[in-house]
Design goal:
The complex is a heterodimer of chains A (381) and B (520). Chain A has 20 helices and ten strands. Chain A is an alpha/beta fold. Chain A has a five-stranded mixed sheet with strand order 2-1-3-10-4, sandwiched between helices. The relative contact order of chain A is 0.15. The longest helix of chain B has 40 residues. The chains are: A alpha/beta (381), B mainly alpha (520). Chains A and B meet through helix 1, helix 9, helix 10, helix 12 and helix 13 of A and helix 3, helix 5, helix 6, helix 10 and helix 19 of B.
Chain lengths: 381, 520
């Protein structure tokens, strides 16, 4: 399998996304050449879901004769698209896993591969290079790319509040930005601008914060090398809580830092020429996340079952899944629907991004897809 | 002490280290999420055996494919260079350039070409083995016995025949030595490659374990990586000894020279050809893969970003400022590693029982992937400029030690006998016999260590210190600033190539003086 995949990918490259159909016979390419990207398909349905996806989904346009057949020949009219996630697999993308597992994407004519990210993956780049129809990015990255000439639109916002927090131990808590003065902060070095902005917005003297590089790792805080960490609400604090370490988190979003995170982006070209596919992907995703919200434990269990090689701790996934609700859903999404963004929040973002040195216009955001999707109300049936 | 068998000594040292480790982990570092006691590490491995073995298998498989493709390409190109000496300089320049490319910036660019999946990890691990195998294979082809070549020639056969019948066979020992080094390198490439979005493998499992405070897991992974990398090294070594038991242990490290033609014009041509070839490759790379202009930067774009664009001054100060930091910390570590290696080799020569006890450990340590070493070094020296220096020192120390000791050990008995007849002491022996014998090995190691030190420095800057050109590249990548990314890659690669050639030139001149028999 691997040499095949290697030679194909290496020598055909991304230019031959269409040619892949000729070479591999479409579905077969997904079935054997693409096991990395399409892992969920190959894993058995976990107990939490009612039935295997392929039979449960009455694909909108599928020919009746082929729906019951094995995967290799099923529903050839499904369009294959990649959805570039922003990080390694985890329940962070639980709603999308549900959508995949339950056949919600297929309902809209799509065979979606959920492609994991990582430290060496830029979702913006993957979308710009046509390796993914839709990617999960953040407004600051996308704004920068657009300023550099990449034609992106933000078509949905999965995290209403930015997930950045300052995490500290509860017996030495950082409750507000001012508390950072005179302490040591551990953070990834590419968050320097974010810290500068938080300081500026809250009248903090940044020169009084001693910054130490640390990444993906709560150990420096737990071991007392630093007083706090700049991280996500849903990663390092969750790990500490699961290990029984009392911690305090302070959301950047509660102190004026308005940057949309987990934004769904696509190119202007896709928006013009493949609008139906983008719409379908969003619709399928929304169905998945609506279900996620009703039972986050089930989403955690599904994640653990789908990715046995990740060595997930079920409790950590459950906690992450429920913590995430706090920043993904809000009064705005209840009123308008998941992924929604208000004009007001766009203006807040433009101001915050300008302070970060990224100048963007309001037309970076395109809400027309969501308006179409939620024409009949904020819940998709 | 001399009567104790080496295995027993090594085992004793090993047990002492483990005991000390266990003690430290249970006392000083207890509850610190840093150092796991060996007993806990073993217990964790058995508890999650299936998880570890699945991920280990995945990374090993990736590394094996990279090992295969990279070595095949290297050996094929070395063959071309051997049959057509005209191309030697140019192929060598491309191979060296590939060796000098900073992994951490190349990975995301490769990801844009290969797409999601295993393409990037495999390509990265193929690139990681390419240069050393190329040099080893070429050395092997060159060392074919002249008499055998004469026989082929006397039958009226051409260069291709000579290659097939004589050179290919003669190259086996050198090739094996090259493949030995390639095994751990391939593994490192695969693990770094996993950072470009994988679902399985030890690299991604490390990132997950760090974030989840699974300290035992980090140590299990470190141990498994060491076993696989070292195991690959040893298995290939054993295979080599079985295939050609007559061959002496070989170090890969001959200076890849081409005969210098007289005349200024010829010299200029010899200098220009490889540079032109590298630029042609650059364009060909962009053209073949049809990379969009947003990502793809040509040599002209890089030049413009550095000198003519509106923000050129800003880019220059950013890139060269960071480069200064990197070069400073790297050279400190580089020099410290080399000096430490020579001193240790001398100590080993003078105190043989110590050598027998510690050398196997040193041989094992030289093949541990840096991704695994880094967290351990952070544990001991913290996060700061010293971290980079320490990592670079470790990276240059072990290979140099192994090579220098092997060379000293081959000091001709005649020289030592002469010294003995003059009643010379150990100091005189070291000065007059051992050190001079080790010079070629030291210089060869020093040359190879230039690019690997810079690789180590950028990885350390990325994972631990957050400064220097490694950090600039990562920031540029996360912000999609492909201009700065390509500028950094180009500048850093150029620096590594120049450093390599400076040491190579020094090496040639020194060898002509100290050991005329060695240089060809």
């Amino acid at each position: 399998m691997a040499p095949n995949q290697f030679s194909r990918r290496r020598f055909i490259g991304r230019t031959a996304a269409g040619a892949g159909l000729i070479l591999g016979g479409g579905r077969i390419l997904t079935a054997c050449g693409d096991d990395e990207a399409a892992a969920p398909t190959t894993t058995a349905a976990p107990a939490t879901t009612a039935a295997p996806a392929t039979t449960a989904a009455p694909a909108a346009t599928a020919a009746p004769a082929t729906t019951a057949a094995p995967t290799t020949t099923a529903a050839p009219e499904l369009a294959e698209v990649n959805f570039q996630l922003s990080w390694f697999d985890s329940v962070q993308f639980g709603g999308s896993y549900i959508a995949h597992q339950m056949g919600y994407y297929e309902r809209f004519g799509l065979d979606v591969s959920l492609v994991p990210g990582g430290p060496g993956v830029s979702p913006d780049a993957a979308v710009a290079a046509d390796q993914a129809l839709v990617g999960i990015s953040a407004a600051n990255f996308t704004g920068q790319s657009v300023a550099d000439g990449a034609p992106f639109k933000i078509v949905g916002v999965a995290m209403q509040k930015n997930p950045f927090v300052i995490a500290s131990l509860s017996d030495n808590p950082i409750n507000e930005p001012k508390d950072l003065e005179g302490t040591k902060l551990g953070m990834a070095f590419n968050n320097q601008l974010d810290l500068e902005l938080l300081s500026e917005l809250n009248d903090v003297d940044i020169s009084k914060i001693e910054v130490i590089t640390s990444d993906y790792d709560p150990a420096p805080l737990v071991n007392g090398e630093v007083d706090s960490l700049l991280c996500w609400l849903t990663d390092l604090p969750v790990a500490m809580t699961v290990q029984g370490i009392d911690n305090t988190t302070m959301l950047f979003a509660d102190f004026g830092y308005a940057v949309h995170s987990q934004t769904l982006i696509c190119t202007e070209e896709s928006l013009a020429n493949r609008r139906d596919q983008v719409l379908g992907l969003l619709r399928g995703d929304i169905l998945g996340w609506q279900e996620y919200r009703t039972d986050t434990d089930a989403a955690a269990q599904l994640t653990v079952d789908l990715f046995p090689d990740a060595g997930f701790d079920l409790d950590a996934q459950k906690l992450q899944a429920s913590e995430q609700l706090k920043i993904m859903f809000s009064a705005d999404t209840d009123e308008h629907g998941f992924l929604w963004f208000t004009d007001e929040s766009v203006q807040d973002n433009i101001r915050t991004l300008a302070a970060l040195g990224v100048d963007v216009a309001a037309d970076l955001w395109d809400r027309s897809l969501l308006e179409e999707i939620y024409a009949d109300g904020p819940v998709l049936a | 002490m001399d009567r104790v068998p080496p295995r027993v000594l090594s085992a004793a040292v090993g047990i002492a280290v483990l005991a000390l480790w266990e003690l430290l982990a249970r006392t000083v570092y207890a509850g610190s999420y840093r150092l796991s006691p060996p007993t806990a590490v073993v217990a964790d491995f058995f508890e999650y055996r299936d998880l570890y073995l699945r991920n280990l298998w995945h990374s090993t498989k990736t590394a094996a494919w990279g090992f295969l493709w990279g070595n095949l390409a290297a050996i094929a190109l070395a063959g071309v260079a051997s049959i057509m000496p005209v191309l030697r300089r140019s192929i060598g320049a491309v191979a060296l350039t590939i060796f000098c490319l900073p992994f951490i910036a190349v990975a995301p660019i490769l990801r844009l070409i290969t797409g999601p999946g295993n393409g990037t990890p495999i390509t990265l691990s193929a690139l990681a083995v390419f240069f050393t195998t190329y040099v080893a294979a070429l050395l092997g082809f060159d060392t074919a016995p002249g008499s055998a070549l004469d026989v082929v020639r006397s039958f009226g056969r051409g260069r291709f025949s000579a290659f097939r019948r004589v050179r290919l066979r003669a190259s086996v020992p050198a090739m094996i030595a090259g493949l030995q080094i390639a095994a751990p390198a391939a593994f490192l490439g695969a693990v770094v490659g996993e950072f470009t979005g994988a679902r399985s493998g030890l690299g991604i499992l490390t990132v997950r374990a760090l974030g989840a405070l699974h300290t035992d897991r980090i140590w299990v992974i470190a141990l498994l990586s060491t076993i696989v990398a070292t195991g690959g090294y040893m298995v290939i070594g054993a295979l080599g000894r079985r295939l050609c038991p007559w061959a002496p242990a070989l170090d890969v490290g001959a200076v890849p020279t081409a005969r210098q033609e007289p005349g200024l014009l010829n010299r200029l041509a010899a200098l220009a050809a490889p540079i032109i070839v590298v630029f042609v490759f650059w364009y060909a790379f962009l053209w073949v893969f049809q990379i969009k202009p947003f990502f793809a930067k040509t040599p002209f774009d890089v030049w413009a970003e550095l000198f003519t664009n509106a923000d050129a001054a800003e880019t220059r100060s950013l890139v060269f400022g960071a480069l200064g930091t990197t070069l400073w910390t790297t050279s400190l570590g580089y020099v410290a590693g080399l000096i430490g290696a020579v001193v240790t080799a001398v100590v080993f020569i003078l105190i043989p029982w110590l050598e027998r006890a510690l050398m196997p450990i040193a041989v094992a340590l030289r093949s541990i992937p840096i991704i695994v070493t880094t967290p351990v070094i952070i544990l001991f020296v913290g996060r700061g400029l010293l971290t980079t220096t320490a990592i670079v020192a470790v990276m240059s120390f072990f290979p140099t030690l192994v090579n220098c000791y092997a060379a000293m050990n081959r000091t001709p008995g005649g020289i030592l006998d002469v010294l003995k007849s003059y009643d010379a002491g150990s100091a005189a022996n070291v000065r007059n016999a051992y050190l001079p014998t080790a010079v070629p090995a030291l210089l060869a190691s020093a040359r190879i260590a230039v690019p690997t030190s810079l690789l180590g420095a950028t990885v350390a800057e990325w994972l631990a210190t957050g400064d220097g050109i490694g950090a600039v590249m990562v920031i540029a990548f996360t912000r999609n600033d492909y201009n700065v990314l390509w500028v950094s890659v180009a500048v850093l690669t150029l620096v590594a190539v120049i450093g390599y050639w400076l040491v190579a030139a020094f090496e040639l001149r020194t060898l002509e003086r100290v050991a005329p028999g060695v240089s060809r």
